[in-house]
Amino acid sequence: MSDQINTRRRRLLGTAVAGISLLDLGLSGLAHAQSGETAGNTKTATRVASFENIRQVNAGTLSISYAEAGPRNGPVVILLHGWPYDIYSFAEVTPLLVAAGYRVIVPYLRGYGPTRFLSADTPRNGQQAVVAVDIIALMDALKIDKAVLGGFDWGARTVNIIAALWPERCKAMVSVSGYLIGSQEANRAPLPPKAELTWWYQFYFATERGYAGYDANRHDFNKLIWHTASPKWNFDDATYERTAESFRNPDHVAVVIHNYRWRLGLANGEPQYDEIEKRLAMAPTISVPTITMEGDANGAAHPDPAAYAKKFTGRYQHRDIGGGIGHNLPQEAPKAFAEAVIDVVRL
Which domain holds residue 120? Predict the structure, then answer.
């Protein structure tokens, strides 16, 4: 694998503390960031944390861009975002974990931010297996044998897959919305009308009009998703624009569209991942220590915790987070998410 290189520094627009690094932010940053909380969870529109240390490494089929903070010899936590979000979902989680002694790795998934495909010939594939393979490749490139994994949305599905199929690489797991491993076969079954309505964008993406529409309007489209998935989160424009930059990735649209078309069986995956998908289609259980979480105002489609509790056969706990917390739980309730990461290894 190639050597890691610092590629750039990013700042939160419009903040007076843009020069503060994560390593210096610590708990003082938490006190500022969580002013205006309800029940210990962030609802304020103000955002102060910013990643200073952005690196790049060749891993598998990608050149993966990732944020890193904390001691090099500390226990490793890898945090994974979903769609349509990016590494800044964990900007306020990270200093809390650094203060607890963790080395924190937060990668941009394929199709986001500065992460790039190494070859123009590689399919812009978004199937569930390939994202997990990407993260295993990242761990190999960084010589990380085992880590605590945490995520939401696509990130939660990815940590589920790694914990289920490669438990030797996963010390423990925090998963927002629980167990999200699926299959094309399972997705053939229709849902009740109200549930289908929450997946409206999936059906839009199934059409060529949807592909063109998302390509042309990804900025406003994804802002709409933020509002509907987290209806009580009063994020400001600067917070959204910071993440919206990640959607400018030249492969973003192709990866997102393929992901949702693959789920419905409208697009093929790559043959080399067929065996992994067969194993995932059996809905494997997860034995590593796990905390699942759910916000009380999640406007996105998500399963009921009772529906997946038995999928976790090891030490397990579920936490409901109140105070108007939506789909982007780590960014909306960073203290609660960081506490779960710290607590999960102690279950």
Answer: 5-344
